[in-house]
Amino acid sequence: MDVRAQISMMFHLDKCIGCHTCSVACKNIWTDREGTEYMWWNNVETKPGTGYPTKWEDQEKYKGGWQPKGKTIKLKVADKASTFANIFHQPHLPTIDDYYEPWTYKYSDLFDAKAGDDQPTARPVSLITGKNIDINAGPNWDDDLSGSSVYAKNDPNLTEDEKQALFEIERLTMFYLPRICNHCLNPACVASCPSGALYKRGDDGIVLLDQNTCRAWRFCISGCPYKKTYYNWKTGKSEKCILCFPRLETGQAPACFHSCVGRIRYLGVLLYDADKIEATASAPENELVELQREMILDPHDPEVIAGAEKSGVHFSMVEAAQKSPVYKFVKKWKLALPLHPEFRTLPMLFYIPPLLPVLGRMEDGVYNVDSDEYFTSLDKARLPMRYMASLFTAGNEEQVRLVLEKLLTVRTYKRAEEVGDMDSDKLKAMFEKTGLTPELCEEIYRLTSLPTFEDRFVIPPMHREYVAELTMDDPYTFKAEIGFGGFKGRIERGT
Ligand code: SF4
Ligand code: SF4
Predict the structure, then answer these.
(1) Which atom of ligand 2 is nearest to the CA of 262?
(2) Dihedral sign, CA of 358, 361, 367, 371?
(3) Cα–ligand 2 centroid distance for 222 (angstroms)
(4) Ligand nearest to the CA of 75
């Protein structure tokens, strides 16, 4: 057992209101520079929909992530031979049109226009060419337009029949999917970089990109199946989310977490067994979620604590793991799931799938709260179970159903307690089926609905002074220096 620590994340999708405050907070701090205009290290997309860059989930098009090869896995985008063959022309990159052409407005026209009968207008101009453009795409262009024949129709997670059903007007539904880099345990971006510019920090697992080593081959952009590395056309280097590590090192939550209006974001340490990475990432698809969960270790287990000490994990990391809200949602309650586990990067950002409207019968456009069935069955929920499974469990419907059943049980329990109109036999059956108890429901409810700032973000004291020791004979880490956009930091890098 090789015990490692990872700063991990959980987003509760039922709580996201799609306000994009997270995206703007990140943009203002990190990508408000020339060459980064089109980059949104944090973006929020509408599902069903095609996302940003468009159709990023379609790995037939982009060749991101890993694929099985015998008993192990290989990158989809390249092996050694094709890396050399494609090094001057990367055929699977998204184009600027797949993202969108960034623009601003000629605001000066509003002030400089001569007096006349018509209102002056500010024309959109490209931030790349400076020329007038017609806007026809944006990073959240399909915001709230789920079910539209333009966007939902092209969502690669939907079958043809499901698309037809979704366009029936009374079934229209959508939810928001905020996305950042997953700081994966088996990052395809790191593995695909011919220059070794990407690395995973040994002590906290944050995946970074060394600006001095990057040679702009852009294999990381194709390699990342989530399309969370980006090319800066001004500096000629790639860039990515750094999980606001300068903020974390001073005890502050990342900007997108701190600013989240819906309070959907949780951050905490997970301890995991690094010896299991290859076997887990190579497992059959329907076992991926469960095996990734099994890699996560109990931070209260004395054997794990001893293992952590042996691997050089500072005890403050173990203490943070013991209080981690992410541990509770992912491992203890088994409520949070990785996004597209079939990409096999072992993402360390987990999601609680949205329960979606599950209220019972509608009459004359109004939910009938007097109906016997206040909550309807999951099978009558508007988005098909198969669709949720395609997003969060590599197609394993039972796994996603169990999570949704647990969420429904918590809601039913709270309604029974607060309003008292729930059938107690039915609630008892729900407890039996999901393994939940009133105490567990209360715990889940409290951390979901009433968490304080300190409950949501358990940030470990970062012991950067110990990292040099950790790097001595640690295959994951060695020293390097990065710097961009006026920011410089000293960090350790992995191989
Ligand atoms: S999501 Fe994973 S593969 Fe993509 S950039 Fe982040 S760490 Fe790398
Ligand atoms: S700030 Fe929070 S609630 Fe708003 S879009 Fe971002 S993740 Fe959702």
Answers:
(1) 3
(2) negative
(3) 27
(4) 1
Contact 242, 206 (CB under 8 A): yes
CA torsion 287-289-290-291 (nearest 10°) is 80
**Number of domain units in the chain:** 1
Report percent pLDDT > 90 for the chain: 65
pLDDT at 488: 29
DSSP-derived secondary structure letter, 329: I
Nearest CA to ligand 2 atom 2: 260
| 187 inside domain | no
pTM of the model: 0.90
Give the structural domain span for 306. Answer: 262-456
Asked, for residue 356, whether it belongs to a domain, the answer is: yes
- Predicted confidence band of residue 464 (pLDDT cuts 50, 70, 90): low
Q: Supply the residue whose CA is at minimum distance from atom 6 of ligand 2.
A: 22
DSSP-assigned states of every residue in 84-111: HHTTT--TTPPPHHHH---EEE-THHHH
Is 427 inside any structural domain? yes
Which tens digit of pLDDT belongs to each residue from 289-317?
999 999 999 999 999 999 999 988 999 99
Does residue 444 lie in a domain region? yes
What mean pLDDT comes out for the span 102-121?
91
Say if CB 313 and CB 463 are below 8 A apart. Answer: no
CATH number, domain with residue 408: 3.30.70.20
Least confident span in 150-154, 209-213, 269-273: 150-154
pLDDT of residue 421: 78
